[in-house]
């Protein structure tokens, strides 16, 4: 019952949080000195034609009137039409969402698979050469710029060694599309060739996204384990003769993961939004590439749509983290 109350309280905050996001992004987007009507009308359009199109699009109205109309349309699921693709923005976003989610999930799996175990090892081997090396690597991983890392990986593994594709999501047409997630679609259609090709294309962009996130998890996992490892219950289990690996990986890690799980939720949102740069470098057909093209075309409504869907995913992931917390740490239910 208490868990249900927590979920409902988070859901209640969903709408005002999303409204605040729309408010901020809408007014910031309109600070940019661009004129969508002139872009649509083209270079050869007369001033009269541009003014007529501006009136038709409602751009001659005060900003607060435009905002009210946008929120009203948003409530009905209408995000407007893209100037870049000339299609409904909601259709564009839904079509590209699986590509970005698939890449983000792959990066998250790599980051957790590397970051949490290395953080535990760093804490257990505190102040040794292993610990110092991992700390240097984690700080370096946090400092490195994603676009630089992406280009370096491309230059070495794709151009020089020829081990991985240079860009794209898949060679040819890919698997028969069912969900839009190529890994899942390949499994559902038993298209093992496309499955291998999908992983092959995903490897470099996923690693590029994952390394900074893994560095963050190393530091959080290390701090969490160090905080728990000297607790009384750990000392008691040691005195009882429990094997050290059992104490670390079963009892210490479970308590240390509470703060790490929170960080994982935040990292997922950061990776999802941060995919903009990585997708642009690897020509990955996801939301990031769409956002970059929209910015270059001054497509304000498409930028708004991208921001909203990123916000919804971010809020949703953090809601899942809150629910997961109630299972990992039942004290949150009190």
Envelope shape: globular
Main sheet makeup: none
Average pLDDT, to the nearest integer? 84
Order of helices and strands: HHHHHHHHHHHHH
User: Structural class from helices and strands?
Assistant: mainly alpha
Using only C-alpha atoms, the radius of gyration works out to 24 Å
Task: Give helix % range.
Answer: over 70%
Number of DSSP E strands: 0
Number of helices: 13
- Low-pLDDT stretches: none
Q: What fraction of residues sit in β-strands? A: under 5%
Q: How many angstroms does the end-to-end distance come to?
A: 11 Å
Could you characterize the architecture of this molecule?
It is built from 13 helices and no strands. With 334 residues, the protein is mainly α. The longest helix has 39 residues, at 244-282. The mean pLDDT is 84.
Key traits:
single chain; 334 residues; mainly alpha; 13 helices; globular
Element layout with pairings:
Layout: H1 2-29, H2 36-41, H3 47-57, H4 63-75, H5 89-124, H6 129-143, H7 146-160, H8 182-188, H9 192-229, H10 232-239, H11 244-282, H12 287-296, H13 300-328
Helix pairs in contact: 1-13, 5-6, 5-9, 5-11, 6-9, 7-9, 7-11, 8-9, 9-11, 11-12, 11-13, 12-13
């Amino acid at each position: 019952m208490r868990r249900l109350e927590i979920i409902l309280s988070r859901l209640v905050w969903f709408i005002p949080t999303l409204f605040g996001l729309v408010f901020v992004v809408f007014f910031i987007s309109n600070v940019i000195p661009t004129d969508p009507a002139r872009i649509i009308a083209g270079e050869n359009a007369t001033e009269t034609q541009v003014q007529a199109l501006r009136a038709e699009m409602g751009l001659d109205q005060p900003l607060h009137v435009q905002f009210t109309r946008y929120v009203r349309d948003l409530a009905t699921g209408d995000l407007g039409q893209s100037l870049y693709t000339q299609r409904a923005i909601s259709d564009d976003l839904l079509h590209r969402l699986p590509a970005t989610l698939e890449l983000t999930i792959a990066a998250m799996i790599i980051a957790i698979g590397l970051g949490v175990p290395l953080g535990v090892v760093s804490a257990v081997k505190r102040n040794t050469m292993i610990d110092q090396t991992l700390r240097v690597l984690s700080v370096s991983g946090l400092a490195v710029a994603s676009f630089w890392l992406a280009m370096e990986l491309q230059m070495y593994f794709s151009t020089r060694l020829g081990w991985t594709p240079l860009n794209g999501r898949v060679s040819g047409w890919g698997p028969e599309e069912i969900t839009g997630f190529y890994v899942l679609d390949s499994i559902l259609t038993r298209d093992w060739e496309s499955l291998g090709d999908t992983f092959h294309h995903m490897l470099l962009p996923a690693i590029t996204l994952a390394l900074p996130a893994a560095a963050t998890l190393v530091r959080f996992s290390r701090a969490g384990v160090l905080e728990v490892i000297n607790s009384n219950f750990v000392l008691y289990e040691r005195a009882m003769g429990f094997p050290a690996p059992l104490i670390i990986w079963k009892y210490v890690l479970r308590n240390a993961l509470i703060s790490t799980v929170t960080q994982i939720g935040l990292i997922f949102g950061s990776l999802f939004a941060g995919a903009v740069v990585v997708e642009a470098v690897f020509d990955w057909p996801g939301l990031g590439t769409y956002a970059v093209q929209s910015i270059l075309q001054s497509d304000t409504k498409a930028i708004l749509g991208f921001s909203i869907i990123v916000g919804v995913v971010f809020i949703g992931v953090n809601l899942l983290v809150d629910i997961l917390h109630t299972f990992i740490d039942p004290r949150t239910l009190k």
